[in-house]
Amino acid sequence: MRHFLRLADAAPGGVRPLLERARAYREGHARVDFQGRILGLLFLAPSLRTRVSFECALHRAGGHALTLDAARGLWPLETRRGVRMDGTAVEHVDDAVAVLGRYVDALAVRAFARLEDDRDDHRDELFAALRERSPIPLVSMESGREHPCQALADVLTIERRHGPLAGRSVLLRWVPHVKPLPKAVANSFLLTAASLGARVTVAAPAEFDLEEGVWEEARTYAAVSGGDVVRCHERAIPPETVAVVAKSWGPHGAPQTLWRAGTHDDWRLGPRDFAAVPEASLLHCLPVRRNVEIEDALLDGPQSLILEEAADRLWVQQAVLAALWDSEERRHP
Ligand code: CP
Question: For a disulfide at 57, which of 15, 20, 240, 318, Cβ 3.0-4.6 Å?
Fold first, then answer.
């Protein structure tokens, strides 16, 4: 694996080896050693879990994490291509990444979707260009299109509770919010669960569909894995569901323009929604707007795995970095 910017980067072995590695680290069956390794973390958008889990993943294994926050202490960065840089931006992100690649051993980057046009966010041009420019392994900490490390943690948590995902039914369930959010977390969960052979239902109001390119990719994975992917516009949780991954995202097409506050508040999840599926688990990547997206009683109740899911980020980050650095050593013995 050269980079981990998208689920597709995990080919040809898929994510199963990464999940097995993460689980072995978590259960103490294998040790990870990052002695002498430096990971750069470049944030062009805020974070709590991703930032701290990556930093701890390095520090707990003897390595060092160097966090760079674009909003504080760096030269203002330009992310668009081909523009005349006569505004406030002083340095182009391409140049910053190329320079950082001379100092650190891998670079993790976060830049959120612009939410102006889903097709632009789906093209993910910033990360595509960084991939071409970077002399070192890159990891996505969420791009306009995917949040692959989050999805790995989601499926690790579900499989620890419910067993292998192949043939199991999982629900990616839209929930309301106060503003339009990116689709990267939803996209990555759909792709990752489909690649593992799950039967994935995506339930959302009709105008909150995901981009067609993501559906196409998910169908391709499902055809190989024996899984299935289904669109649905019903709020109710299907009875065979083992896990509900709750997430909000913006309207399809032009999220900022089409957003209408307060629509579909009846999609908020609460204990009554889970009454018919007492064995099903609730996941949410966090941060969560309590009592807007999901009611307190459900978030803090026995079916909630939100804290296990956040904790599993640590093991997943270690597995991804170890796999990247192992591959690099094989390329440059
Ligand atoms: N789930 C997630 O990525 O959390 P942060 O935005 O806090 O990193």
Answer: 318
